[in-house]
Design brief:
Layout: E1 6-15, E2 18-28, E3 33-37, H1 44-52, E4 59-64, E5 67-68, H2 74-79, E6 82-84, H3 97-109, H4 123-135, H5 151-164, E7 169-173, H6 181-194, E8 199-203, H7 207-213, E9 216-221, E10 224-229, H8 231-235, H9 238-245
Parallel strand pairs: 3-8, 3-9, 6-7, 7-8
Antiparallel strand pairs: 1-2, 1-4, 4-5, 9-10
Helix pairs in contact: 3-4, 3-5, 4-5
Bound molecules: adenosine-5'-triphosphate.
Domain ABC transporter: 6-247
GO cellular component, one term: plasma membrane
Protein name: ABC transporter ATP-binding protein
């Protein structure tokens, strides 16, 4: 069997007496969208924070492309092939989308700034940044400062920045939150296309989107994974039905 891109085993983290993440085993395989669903407070965001390195686990392991990530910081994990859209949500209002993506490319390539040559005139970098912006449907908005972009466009830009890191594993914590129907549909189409190049962990509350997009779904309740399977298996799982799903599609 092909080794998963990302593996967690027994991943745990408490806050005081609360076990927010309690022995979580999840695999993200190449080419899959793996959705993580569960009620509010189930521990989904805590799991993403543990995997991305924003917070440290109390116990358990994380392997990325077969290598233990241990206590490596977020930047080192990014260098190993992990990107998280949420980690870059601090967009600079006065900078354009193009500038953000160029900077992310420079960061990824370990580039240095040439003070005597504006980076936007580096044609190779600019062309690559435009290619990425086109992929997320933002090329025609590339030169508008972030302050002038809609919420949905900012989320698209965050994904473009994540893609500049050429991730093998992409972690998306509620990427569709606050987006209108059109923006959500566009983003769903993008994720559908991206899965061919990477493994995607998707936290999403909209069950219609999850069941339409995900190859596999893990259900988290009270910090624990209570079921993992494809859409049909999750829909018909009795534990999931009673613990969370109710009569969702
Ligand atoms: N820094 C923290 N300090 C204390 N408790 C925390 C902290 N972060 C999360 N928690 C608690 O851990 C539990 C899991 O929270 P988490 O945000 O991971 O859930 P979630 O599944 O992402 O929820 P939601 O769907 O509402 O975003 C919650 O009870 C939350 O209050």
């Amino acid at each position: 069997m092909v080794e998963p891109l990302l593996t967690t085993r027994g991943l745990s983290r408490g806050f005081g007496a609360l076990k927010a993440c309690d022995g979580v085993d999840i695999d993200i395989r190449a080419g899959e969208i793996h959705a993580l669903i569960g009620p509010n407070g189930a521990g989904k965001s805590t799991f993403v924070k543990l995997v991305s390195g924003e917070i440290a686990p109390d116990s358990g392991s994380i392997h990325l492309l077969g290598k233990p990530v241990g206590t490596l910081p977020m930047t080192a994990r990014a260098g190993m092939g992990m990107a998280r859209s949420f980690q870059v949500s601090a967009l600079a209002p006065s900078m354009t989308g193009l500038e953000h993506v160029v900077l992310a490319l420079l960061q990824h390539r370990g580039g240095v700034f040439h003070f005597f040559r504006p980076i936007a005139r580096d044609t190779g970098l600019k062309a690559r940044a435009e290619e990425i912006l086109a992929r997320v449907g933002m090329l025609d908005r590339a030169t508008i400062p972030v302050a002038g972009l809609s919420h949905g466009e900012r989320r698209q830009l965050e994904i473009a920045i994540a893609l500049a890191l050429e991730p093998r594993v992409l972690l998306l914590d509620e990427p569709m939150a606050g987006m209108g129907a059109e923006g959500s549909a566009r983003l769903a189409a993008l994720l559908n296309e991206l899965r061919g190049d990477m493994g995607i962990l998707l936290i999403e509350h909209d069950m219609e989107t999850v069941f339409a997009l995900a190859d596999r779904i893990s259900v988290m309740v009270g910090g624990q994974i209570v079921a993992t399977g494809n859409a049909g298996e999750i829909r018909s799982n009795a534990t999931v039905q009673s613990a969370y799903l109710g009569d969702a599609p």
